[in-house]
Amino acid sequence: MAKFLRHALVPMALLACAPAIVPYAHADEGMWTMDNLPVKQMQDRYHFTPSKEWIDRVTKASARLALGCSASFVSADGLVMTNHHCANECLQQLSDKTHNYFQDGYSAKNPAAEQRCPAMELNQLDSITDVTDRMQAALKGKEGEAYTKARQAEESAIEKECAGADAKTWRCDVISLYHGGRTALYRYRRYQDVRMVMAPDQNTAFFGGDPDNFNFPRYDLDMAFLRVYENGKPAKVAAYLPFDAEGPKDGELVFTSGNPGSTEREVPLADLEFSRNVTVPFVIDNYSALDGALWQYSRESVAHHQEAQERIFGIENSLKVYRGRVPVLADPKLLDAKAKSEASLRDWINADEGRKKTYGDPWAKNAQALAVKQQIFKPYIMLEGSFGLQGDLFSYAKLLVRGAYERQKPDAERLTAFHDGRLPALEAELGSIAPVYPDLEKTELAFSLTKLRQVLGADDESVKQVLGKAAPDDLAVSLVNGSKLADPKVRLALWKGGAKAIEASQDPMIVLARKIEPQARALRKRMDDEVAAPSRQATEAMAKARFARDGVSSYPDATFTQRLSFGQVKGWDENGKQVAPFTTFAGLYDRATGSDPFKLSKPWLDAKGRVNLNTPFDFVSTNDIIGGNSGSPVIDAQGHAVGLIFDGNIHSLGGDFYYDESTNRAVAVDSAAILESLKSVYKNQALADELVKGHL
Amino acid sequence: MAKFLRHALVPMALLACAPAIVPYAHADEGMWTMDNLPVKQMQDRYHFTPSKEWIDRVTKASARLALGCSASFVSADGLVMTNHHCANECLQQLSDKTHNYFQDGYSAKNPAAEQRCPAMELNQLDSITDVTDRMQAALKGKEGEAYTKARQAEESAIEKECAGADAKTWRCDVISLYHGGRTALYRYRRYQDVRMVMAPDQNTAFFGGDPDNFNFPRYDLDMAFLRVYENGKPAKVAAYLPFDAEGPKDGELVFTSGNPGSTEREVPLADLEFSRNVTVPFVIDNYSALDGALWQYSRESVAHHQEAQERIFGIENSLKVYRGRVPVLADPKLLDAKAKSEASLRDWINADEGRKKTYGDPWAKNAQALAVKQQIFKPYIMLEGSFGLQGDLFSYAKLLVRGAYERQKPDAERLTAFHDGRLPALEAELGSIAPVYPDLEKTELAFSLTKLRQVLGADDESVKQVLGKAAPDDLAVSLVNGSKLADPKVRLALWKGGAKAIEASQDPMIVLARKIEPQARALRKRMDDEVAAPSRQATEAMAKARFARDGVSSYPDATFTQRLSFGQVKGWDENGKQVAPFTTFAGLYDRATGSDPFKLSKPWLDAKGRVNLNTPFDFVSTNDIIGGNSGSPVIDAQGHAVGLIFDGNIHSLGGDFYYDESTNRAVAVDSAAILESLKSVYKNQALADELVKGHL
């Protein structure tokens, strides 16, 4: 397991408000949209130009897990390859008192034995349509609230037309690229019947644990295989990636196709300073405290350990990312370059009256937006971002309350997440049979209520409203004990009952969510109208000015939509020491200590005599990836799968802000390691055969 | 309880490397040394000039608790007034299964019943001697290691001469003021027999808990009374502060006499940037994680709650301080002013060949020191600062191991803490009968070993040496279970046995401390020779240049030595709302919710009918204080005690870097509240009488 899943913990709006345009792409840099690949660059550097057939196959064989990961089809019978850490929620949800699939691994004897993941949705990209003109026409001349509303309405209309009557089959997302310089409609085939095929044990998938996370050399078999079903049968898919039994060679040209979540390579300097001075310290502070609390919680019993493990992984993974941002955001090289580039653009605008009129002063506009953001940052993140009200039960309650109110409005006036086209996914979420752990719920809620009071202060009106005269611990216990929302039937009944059922509900978690909804909504409205809207307009103006001046287009900042990166298998120089690009199975046995997280599982201990120790295990390449790329296939020039992305090295943590080919490396499992481990360690010949043959 | 004790958790060397000179003191600003009071300023602003008798009495009636607090004598019979949060360690150590003095309060019926605090030392300032010339002669022309050694040797010699044969009675500290612009010898009378007289219950002392910490209005009775003994009898002291039964008035001139720990008001900009980019993020990250772990630990049982409470208080208090630094260190006003001031000084030096020769380029020298500091920061703080090896048992082991090796050297070559004059305090620490809690030890050690591996990486040689093939949890359990160091007799025997006993010891904690000692020492040496020495020389050169140019002297940055501040009782304007300077007992009853930390204790619930609700409770004043001032008396122009400092308001958190009279406020308990609560709530007429009469 590792960390290239998209962070789900902090509201994205706060952390990645403003993607932007990269004027020049260097070397192997770039997360390219499939309809605008850098063919000249690829040809110049690697003497390779992908055919239309190659692009089509790679596009259609790529997929996205709605929870925030990437994936690919690797057989005609709907077999999906992704990371263990992208499937861990499902593995945990399928586990019971006798089976701990998350810890011990999973292996279905045959398709009939493959169990359905309770809350997994897979999206396969079907088409991309340019809707830039339509969106710009709808937004013209609008500001603040009017802008937010017009944007919501137009997105709703476009998505509705796209999905048509069949929102269960199609998912349509309007995506803003290049800061609204372009708007695109992404249409996805939606698979909600996703079943577990195979996953190795956790020790092997996440060998080295948090200490080795983001490091290399590495020895992780961070893989999982799923299968999508249609009408109760393995789905026949139009495109898949043939599996390469050998893996790539040192220096070989390789691609990744995946869904990088977000980057901030072209956000204004003021936004980086805001991150450095406000967001990053706040997130590290609060995640570290939660990490500490859950660390102790998981030491209390085997059950607590099991319940908290996946959550801890997510938090520690995010923490490594945020810690990585601290030195980057303090690096004068980055900050000075950005200051210089912005100053020159500002001078260029101000040198001409026409340009001044066209672009205005986007820096002043952005600064004003950031001032509002600063003002509402803490209440927003605590109340609307729910950092002050954590746990599954409150999340359900909030979704139910907001969903009930939102669905009373016409589609065009709703928040994006509640458009008709998005409702099936929400309903699936509410119907999830994933277990809710009362002890963990109480701990998370008591923790977050304590934080709520600490961060906003005991005299804050919302804090008083939530806590009344109760202590956080007591309130958490009574809320969790009193709520029936752990039962999916109860949740679905409330969902179907709409606003009337919500208003009538005496469930204490619903009562709390109802009570806090007005403040949370008000904060959301300010963030949308007074921060996001003007900030987007400001960065859009900067981007347009840059286009007008330089006439150069490149790849847009990441948006959790499909992107292709190219690069080569290659080590790097670490303070004068060359890091080799491959590890082998032998290295895994060498690194094992016998104790967690460097403990070998039984299958590997047993296999030591028969496994080929020279099998390449993990490798690094220069591909430009970021969180969200977890589970991306590594593809060779023939369009075959030669590896499986699961992480980046420590230098890749700067990748949010810039790409440095000399040290930034993607980390992948070698396809040869996947095959050899299936055959010699996990004795799953059937799956190995399906991979090699490309069908069941 | 609150937070103006000096932070003990992070090695001071890392956090406050370079105190310096403030060229102009404004308004009520200043932490003045007793031999250089701003008499003109006081006269101009308040028409008051203290008499020699006033200064003498205040000086001698002030005291310092070795653990990091301030205190004062309030009766001729050795009665000492300080904060509850300065006595909480003692209260906890005196507690047993039937008495929880920390939680429920303490009250000795008469002096014979006063119990001795197991590990408390009180120092009373006896004299200050200028040793600047002697020190400068010893250091002349020295650099790096030679500088460090010469400094150690000269300090040792001065302190030895000062304490003479009677190091048990006298403590002598060489203190560098104004960056070595002046060096002073502080000689203290040492009291090691300190007994507990009275402390209120924790609910009242720390009413509002962490949420209200650093806030005002406030309702805390953060007081404790101790008594120093000589030869088994209450000590007769030469000076004490008569107790004022009324408390101060709004606008009244008041003083505080205490021991502010450290400020960084004149450290170079580069040091502030280092704090912002490295120290503050690291400390917040790691303290928050520990805070979270202990938060959960304390929820596990009543015993765990009791064991961890004092530790949690210290951590949360430090966290508030560090969180307060985040916006201050990002404030362009502060940073720009400092950049400008340094640029002008640099220009002044460079404008003249003679000055260039005299002062050199102290900024370059300092930058080089900071580069080394950056490089060794994490290993230093984890291994030498022991953040990676926490718990009382390891601390004892480290002290024993280092002490054994240091004591083999001649006094002049030892680290300051191991000079002959300091040994009695160390011996007292090792002989402390304070309980060691095995569960808490295991938790802290497992936590810190996990952090050690996380921060330095699994491949770090020291990490491998400490952990071997063990998991942090398993190692912590075996170390704590296997060690006998919880027993003071065992510790004292090892201390007396010296290096031979240490080398022969099989105690696993000693074995570990022995193993890590060479790396820890090497890091210490680099920090001393390559960071502290050149950094001190650099800031000294800057200070001297400033003196030469401006000819202005002011107060030195804080050094945990006695300082006087002056100011007045005064509220402040908080975003347009006036905050009144006083609270009353009635406000306490209003704010109570019935649940922790806003819960009234039984004595207060019972007293509601008879207590005078109009009694002033806490008040704020413009006095310039900082961590370490906890327990300082507030003194009026007559030299009487009118209050007891225990905290600052939220704006005081900027006080590390600057003093802003408009909002920075000290928070104190009113002397009237102390008397009224003793009489009407705690029914301790004897103590009230002693305060009023000034003797038993």
From TrEMBL, chains A, B:
Keywords noted in UniProt: Aminopeptidase, Hydrolase, Protease, Serine protease, Signal
- Give its E.C. classification number: 3.4.14.-
Swiss-Prot/TrEMBL GO biological process terms:
peptide catabolic process; proteolysis
- PROSITE patterns, per this entry? PROKAR_LIPOPROTEIN
UniProt keyword Signal present: yes
Residue runs in coiled coils? none
Task: Please indicate which superkingdom the organism of origin belongs to.
Answer: Bacteria
Q: Give the Gene Ontology MF terms in alphabetical order.
A: dipeptidyl-peptidase activity; serine-type aminopeptidase activity
Q: Which Pfam families match?
A: Peptidase_S46
Region forming the signal peptide: 1-27
Q: What does this protein do?
A: Catalyzes the removal of dipeptides from the N-terminus of oligopeptides.
As for family, the record states: Belongs to the peptidase S46 family.
Tell me the protein's name. Answer: Dipeptidyl-peptidase
